[in-house]
Amino acid sequence: MTEQITFMNAAGRMIVLAGLICIATLPAARAADVNAGKARAAQCAACHGPDGIAVLPEAPNIAGQVEGYLVKALKDYRSGARKQEQMSVMAKGLSDRDIENLAAYYHQLPAGGQGVAH
Ligand code: HEC
User: Fold this and answer.
1) SS3 string of 61-80?
2) Band of the pLDDT at 9, cuts 50, 70, 90?
3) Ligand 1, atom 32: nearest CA belongs to which residue?
4) Which atom of ligand 1 is nearest to the CA of 86?
């Protein structure tokens, strides 16, 4: 009887532990990767500048922009809901993951510029 209870407790702990491991690893796997975004952003720098401050007169500054807004803008260019020749071409090659990473990267850059020397 006690053995059975001990076994049940051990099994119960294993289940709780497995659950905790899932909870602990899930958000980490889902979180956007700023470094991957930075690597991707090399192809954006010609227009949006290496620090997210535009170097083309018609391109917007995107450093420090709200993350969700950046994700939506890029998905809208990709889907065609928002159209602009250069951005529609750029966004076509981006996966959801690329978009999340790029948004996280530009979001954490200081809105005033000069934010890439780290
Ligand atoms: C050839 C120049 C060029 C390149 C390269 C480029 N962009 Fe753009 N981007 C623009 C222009 C011009 C606009 C303004 C488009 C419009 O009027 O909708 C823009 C708009 C945006 C916007 C919307 C900003 C806002 O305030 O609504 C985001 C976000 C963006 N670009 C991100 C990126 C990312 C990320 C990359 C790299 C994957 C990239 N761009 C590459 C020229 C460029």
Assistant:
1) CCCCCCHHHHHHHHHHHHHC
2) confident
3) 74
4) 1
Contacts of 59 (CB under 8 A, 6+ apart): 47, 48
pLDDT in tens, 90-111: 999 999 999 999 999 999 999 9
pLDDT digits (tens, 9 = 90+) for 63-77: 999 999 999 999 999
CA–centroid distance, residue 115 to ligand 1 (Å) = 18
List, in order of start, the domains of the chain with CATH numbers: 32-108 (1.10.760.10)
Q: Which amino acid is at 118?
A: H
What the block records as the tokens of 7 is: 């076994």
Q: Smallest Cα–Cα separation from 61: which of 52, 50, 70?
A: 52
Q: Is 105 exposed, middle or buried (0-12, 13-18, 19+ CB in 10 A)?
A: buried
- Ligand 1 centroid–CA 94 distance in Å is 13
User: Which atom belonging to ligand 1 lies closest to the Cα atom of 94?
Assistant: 38
